[in-house]
Amino acid sequence: FQSVIEKERKGDYLGKTVQVVPHVTDEIKQWIQSVSSVPVDGQTRPADVCVIELGGTVGDIESMPFIEALRQLSFSLGKDNFCLIHVSLVPVLGVVGEQKTKPTQHSVRELRALGLTPDLLACRSAQPLIGSAKEKLSQFCHVPVENILNIHDVPNIWHVPLILRNQKAHEAIIKQLNLSRSAGPPELRDWTLMAESYDNLSTSVLKLLWLGSTLICQILTYQW
């Protein structure tokens, strides 16, 4: 917004009325394209993929200019150069533990009303999604079952790339963007060791603290 204001004050818009569309949305698109073309090798080679994170909730008035800019960008770039991953929550309500897909269905429906259709769904949940929940999401959100990813609760965040790898998220993105497969499968051996080490470290620290409080026969309060 500051960039648009400065351009207006310099007269770049030639006295036209400055509006959210097209002036603010054009500035957002120009900013994204500028960042995506920054060389990653320090010379001339741009990145293969530029990741854009749009936070907030679908329908928030603060994010509307950005959603509109992404809609225009997806149209101008084409489906082979734009992949939309929609992150949504699949809560569990009631004592029966049923996974509810309605929040995600409504979220996708509202997103489609704004001109954006998700290519992949990343569903947050406490437990792994059951097959029937994935099938329902696929049917009502128009997303293939293999493109519905589940990020369930894990001991620590280092496990998230591992569960995405196990669900072949990289293959879905490669297929959507028509990227070369010459790089081969992701090598996450060191990452796996790091995740396991973190689990063991947390367990060891907690055991040590418990042992310390037992030896001095007092209840200790620990602040992390």
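Above is the first protein from milestone M3; the second protein from the same milestone is given next.
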Amino acid sequence: CLPLANDCEITMEARVHDLVDEKLQTWFARGVNRISVGVQSFDTQIRQCLGRVDPKEVVIENLQRAASYNQAVIIVDLIYGLPYQTVEKFVDDLKIIDDLPIDGMDLYQLNVFEKSLLKKSLDTGKLPPVATSAEQAEYLKTAAEFLEEANYKRLSVCHWAKSNRERSLYNTLAKTDADVIPFGSGAGGFVGDISVYMQRDLKKYMDSIDKGKVPIMFMLRAPEFASLYKDIQDQTESCGVNLTKLAKKYNKELMQLETVLDIWTEHGLFTKKGHMYRMTIAGQYWQKNITQSLIEITKKFLNAKTSINEWLTEKAMNTFKKKIEN
């Protein structure tokens, strides 16, 4: 047995049909104290077009069953921008979550991957078009306003707590410089400035264990300033940027990045109060792009021989625009 802390968060990523008594009792007996369920939508038509066969009534019943044990935090994942989804149906989903005896929710925008079955169904007209970027932003705005009015606690850009039991530790700490120790075939993590990736091939993984060897596929040393980049990501995951903290911890010249954030503030992605830049709903929607752009700009700035103001004003928006276009 591993010497785990008594407040360790142990999450089971589950589907609706997993929430039966036999499995639930086994999970709890083995120490699971958090269950994250990929509901995506409660609407039966939307679920079935995604290949999720359980209707709304079964989803609700199974979530109630899991919560009735009072042995674990119960979290639901929702996606916005789905085929057949409307703002009205999405609000119905939020109301269902608010009525259920669960502890929080995660919210993600739809990503349509090339060569996926969903992409094929959309291209052939088997499914109606998904939401545009502007429509997806409206879904996020609707959710943020609903959850704020319902007094949910915002844990990160994608995570909300309904009760004090939900901490979402992995989701928040994995974006920082905390150590993440990988276990299992295909797992990845990092310890200090070393990234570690375990063997993906299950046979090779098991053979290594049988021989008494650690089944590591490869390791990489993190690049220079990796800790800074993680701190930037940690801040943007919390829907804001505090350059003062970054400058005090790493390099006072980082305060020059105000040039970038001021440009983005002028374009409606942030509001500024003192040294704190807070993301607007538009900024929250583009959070991943903002994070990638800010890290890329920071890398270039740290390697530059000139003042950031001499070359960055134009690059700040150009870099971000390219991210959006891609």
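Note on the second protein: The mean pLDDT is 92.
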